[in-house]
TrEMBL record:
Molecular function as annotated in GO: sialate O-acetylesterase activity
Pfam families on file: SASA
Annotated Sialate O-acetylesterase domain residues: 104-342
This protein's name: Sialate O-acetylesterase
Native species: Aureibaculum marinum
Superkingdom assignment: Bacteria
UniProt lineage: Bacteria, Pseudomonadati, Bacteroidota, Flavobacteriia, Flavobacteriales
Key words of the record: Hydrolase
GO BP: any one term: carbohydrate metabolic process
Length: 467
């Protein structure tokens, strides 16, 4: 009996003396934490009831917590942007997080146009890489993998921005972060979690998406691919769920090309993704996204990609705290991965700097269709973000189409009148509807005076048949 008691005490002493503490990969040296907010520091221990003390070097106050079934979690208040700092986590073992900055944290996600690195395709890539020395910009790359159930951790580590690390990181995320860093003079943390070719369904919780019969059936239309997942929830479980405890300022998103197969469902799936991510992160963060660029696909005059763009526009108009970047002037009909990522990132940053950070006197969007008036044989189109007027690049305005009650669209003659566009066609005596840039490969030329392009749109809600 005494021997058994001795062994038990010895084992308990061993467990307490050699208890191991570890953290998720998103909490590592070189990370950036969201400034002036409450951030979560969490992890695990081999001692199920371990008492943990967390001490940030920016504060004289430590917090004490106790693990429950081997898991522990505590919240820290962060100061204004700055650093560097350390965070010490101490139980029977001590872990110190070093070179920590406080600043602004953004998550970049989507498919290949968000994923692609300077080495894969970026204008002026050699110079951009050479100049990428920004010690206060940090990268966290989530590697491509899937999971059938939500995962608590993912591989990765925070890295300081150097030419060597930047060349293998998302071009758009880097360029967006660089703009914020230079404009705001604060550290910026960038998380890249994306996978080329993926449809939106794999970035949404399977449980949530399957609650909607329409979306559940639409997901079945997706053709399986050998190079990327398209099953519902697989990348959400593996590449988003492990990040949910990490406080972020917002999301930048570039995706949609792979949903042309079930384009109409995007009107519902895209708002669902935004809403569900905000609930999962427990924060109504800013969400800025890119309207997919023109490309020939298998039919430049088809409208499956135009449906995606329309769904993206409708989402921006319906969902709060969102913004959309238009790219119909910087696409490439021969390349589904346009290499002008600089303008894409700059336009995303315009939204963030204005709407999220409160910068004044910035026009951050191109013209967005607002309303129409029918005047005899003409339709007058009104736009938001055109207070200073509109302009065309070229001799004539392109990509306007007009229709009567027969729902047959004809190319329209279009003319700018101050901050409106007046359209008409000799083939349409009693016009009722207008469409603009409403095809896969449309290359329109309408801009506001600040040089930002107008979004594609349609004034009708007629049923569209995809061929």
């Amino acid at each position: 009996m005494k021997k058994l008691l001795f062994i038990t005490i010895t084992l308990l002493f061993y467990n307490y003396s050699f208890a191991e503490i570890w953290l998720p990969s998103i909490l590592s040296d070189n990370m950036v934490l969201q400034q002036q907010s409450e951030v979560t520091i969490w992890g695990w221990t081999t001692n199920p009831n371990e008492k943990i003390t967390i001490t940030p070097s920016w504060s004289a106050h430590a917090i004490e917590i106790q693990a429950y079934q081997g898991k522990w979690s505590g919240k820290l208040a962060t100061p204004k942007a700055g650093g560097t700092y350390t965070i010490t986590i101490k139980g029977h073992e001590e872990v110190i997080l070093k070179n920590v900055l406080i600043g602004e944290v953004w998550l970049g996600s989507g498919q290949s146009n968000m994923e692609w690195t300077p080495l894969q395709g970026l204008d002026n890539a050699e110079t951009e890489i050479k100049n990428a020395n920004f010690p206060e910009i940090r990268f966290f790359q989530v590697f491509n993998h899937t999971a059938l159930t939500p995962q608590e951790n993912t591989k990765g580590k925070w890295m300081v921005c150097t030419p060597e690390t930047m060349k293998n990181f998302s071009s758009i995320a880097y360029l967006f972060g660089r703009k914020l860093h230079t404009e705001l003079s604060v550290p910026v943390g960038l998380i890249s979690s994306n996978w080329g070719g993926t449809p939106i369904e794999t970035w949404i919780s399977e449980q949530l998406l399957n609650k909607n019969k329409t979306l559940r059936e639409a997901a079945k239309k997706l053709t399986p691919k050998p190079w990327w997942p398209n099953e519902t929830g697989l990348t959400y479980n593996a590449m988003i769920y492990p990040l949910l405890n990490f406080n972020i300022a917002g999301v930048i998103w570039y995706q949609g090309e792979s949903n042309r197969e079930n384009a109409f469902s995007y009107y519902k799936s895209f708002p669902l993704l935004i809403d569900s991510w905000r609930k999962a992160f427990d924060k109504d963060f800013s969400f800025y996204f890119v309207q997919i660029a023109p490309y020939k696909y298998d039919n430049p005059k088809g409208v499956d990609a135009a449906i995606i763009r329309d769904a993206q526009l409708k989402t921006m108009l319906a969902v709060s705290n969102t913004g959309m970047v238009v790219t119909n002037d910087i696409g490439n009909l021969e390349n589904i991965h346009p290499t002008n990522k600089q303008d894409v990132a700059s336009r995303l940053a315009l939204w963030a700097l204005t709407k999220h950070y409160g910068k004044k006197d910035i026009v951050y969007s191109g013209p967005i269709y607002k309303s129409m008036e029918i005047y005899k044989r003409k339709i007058i189109l009104n736009f938001d973000y055109a207070d200073n007027g509109l302009l065309k690049k070229g001799k004539e305005l392109k990509e306007f189409y007009i229709a009567g009650d027969d729902q047959k669209f004809y190319p329209a003659k279009a003319k700018i009148v101050k901050n409106t566009v007046v359209v008409s066609s000799k083939n349409v005596k009693k016009p009722v509807a207008v469409r603009f840039a409403f095809s896969n490969g449309a290359l329109p030329n309408l801009f506001n005076k600040e040089g930002l392009p107008a979004s594609a749109f349609r004034t009708d809600n007629w049923e569209i048949e995809l061929k």
